[in-house]
Amino acid sequence: MVQVEPLEEGEQPQLATRTEGNTNEAFHPNLYQMAPERVPALHLNLPFILDDLKTETSQKQLSTARSIMKSVDQPFLPPLDKATHVEFLLSPLDEGLSGGFVGLDASRPWLLYWCINALSLLGKDVGIYNDRAVSSLKPLQHPSGGFGGGNGQAPHVAAAYASILTLAITSYYASIGLPEDERLAVYADSFAWIDRGKLLQWLRKIKLPNGGFKVNEGGEEDVRAGYCALVVLALLGYDDEDLRGDLSRGELPLLDGVAEYFKSCQTWEGGIGAKPNAEAHGGYAFCVLAALCLLGDPEEALSKTLDLNRLISWLSARQYAPEGGFSGRTNKLVDGCYSTWVGGCWSLVEAAANAIESGKKSTKMNVGDLWSRKALIRYILTCCQGPRGGLRDKPGIRPDYYHSNYVLLGLSAAQHYYYYDDVSVQSPVLTKSPFRHGYRWKSSKNVPKPTGHDGTGGGWLEGLVSEESDRVGVQHPLFNIPLGAEGQLQSWWEWFNDVGDVDALSSEN
């Protein structure tokens, strides 16, 4: 049984009390720090069933499995080498990138987001980069609305997504502990310059009649575009009236058909494709699940839109043994980045299965762990850490900034439990938002074990960290930014919509 908050008067006591990851918690060493566990036999042997037909794919799979078996076969899990990873991630921010990165000129917002968010996961105060983030991203705002990936480039929804996430993170850290007027000034510098009107009109141009979105005007259609668009709309404080549109100008409600479009992208395997009739892929699965959870509580939004039984079957097949990590597609190799794209799906599916959890409605039955968190942690710590810093796809592959961020995000998903709380206090502005459900998520260091129909069992899954120093930061399971940053940004929009005197605010500071 799980209890999030103290029980209401007259309720029966539960077996354990969860401590939340974003509050000052009591620390219980015997709960988190366990004696070293033996490597399970599952990680030390090749799969029980091997394909007799030798192909390039099957040979690569065996080679990868053997390599990983050597990595995990050690008596102690290596610690998370935070200091070395921090040094790796600080290098592009403090020293700049080499000429070899010119090919990523259209990914400037992404490079900022990957490095800054990964540093926040490792416990670094990235508020010092807020001014630089603003000065770097301002020139990327396109005159017609939205953001390009580089200076003078056409707007792209993924570039807008990465830009807004970066600003949400740096402004959050830069404003921690400041008096109210100074905190508002930080957010004014970070967000008041964004032309929300033009951005909204640009998003209408990439919305499709079938409910989907294109990544840019004339670009490809996929669910990633829909997810990125919804996150941008949610974080920039648009409300129902903004999204309804002006019928006199032929504008339809911007969210019309979105959930139905996502539903049409579920494949015969149970996974989610980029668009209808496309191959199931872990990255697109996360985009659809997270987007749906922005539009409703996870139980209702996922169970009413998707075939959860088939989805769970497909997700289960993505975690491999002996590797312990995830693949993104059927018959593909394990890859560290799917620690987020598939591991993040499990956080949302578990929340849907366990329904609403809050102080007033404690969960009486819990499904427990639907995936092996310990196996993923073992894969990340033994196989994904580069010897000179940074995190990577798998042994033998060089670390990079993309994998560093998404491997650490997956580690956070494994080390924390995320749940939906419908009694969270929300501002008047947020109650008018179609994305208000995205602001009702909480986290806990305690991961529940399953309970039976008779209420027996329960307690907490142990041994997810050997030392507290190996734990990474708590992230919002939908936005992939530090949990709490989304709320601070919304409080700014509440002030901005109510007062909006940015010039007066700036002159005072």
From TrEMBL:
InterPro entries the UniProt entry points to: FTB (IPR026872), PGGT1B-like (IPR045089), Prenyltrans (IPR001330), Terpenoid_cyclase/PrenylTrfase (IPR008930)
Alphabetic keyword roster: Metal-binding, Prenyltransferase, Repeat, Transferase, Zinc
SUPFAM superfamilies given in the database record: Terpenoid cyclases/Protein prenyltransferases
Stored CDD domains: FTase
Keyword Repeat: yes
Broad EC category: transferase
MF terms in GO: protein farnesyltransferase activity; zinc ion binding
Signal peptide: none
GO cellular component: protein farnesyltransferase complex
Stored Pfam families: Prenyltrans (PF00432)
PANTHER family, alphabetized: GERANYLGERANYL TRANSFERASE TYPE BETA SUBUNIT, PROTEIN FARNESYLTRANSFERASE SUBUNIT BETA
Subunit structure: Heterodimer of an alpha and a beta subunit.
The protein's role, per its UniProt record: Catalyzes the transfer of a farnesyl moiety from farnesyl diphosphate to a cysteine at the fourth position from the C-terminus of several proteins. The beta subunit is responsible for peptide-binding.
Designated name of the protein: Protein farnesyltransferase subunit beta
